[in-house]
Amino acid sequence: MASYRDKKVITIGIVHELTGLSERRIRYYEERGLIFPERTTRGTRKYSFSDIELLIKIANKREEGVQTNEIKKDMQNERKKKNMHDGIIQGQLNAHFKTNSRPNIK
């Protein structure tokens, strides 16, 4: 079951109010591959609380002068490290419990 933080239920207007970012800026971060809202059947973007936190982090980095391509690269590196860490933990659990389950790395 997904955490409430990860459920995509918040509209772009509310995200704008919570973050202070313009809707145009939020869509730009989506275009740059930094944020990934879900879309309803009518095309409405839906965001999660985790997305809002990420948008604030992105905005803070932009204020420090970091370019969006650098932010994207950093985010990809963080995901790779997390996936590698998760794989190591899974491997240790498999070895300890002598299972043959393969790590579920995304």
TrEMBL record:
Residues 75-106 are annotated as: Disordered. Residues 9-77 form the HTH merR-type domain. Coiled coil: none annotated. This is MerR family transcriptional regulator. InterPro entries: DNA-bd_dom_put_sf, MerR-type_HTH_dom, MerR_fam. PROSITE patterns: HTH_MERR_2. Residues 91-106 have a biased composition (Polar residues).
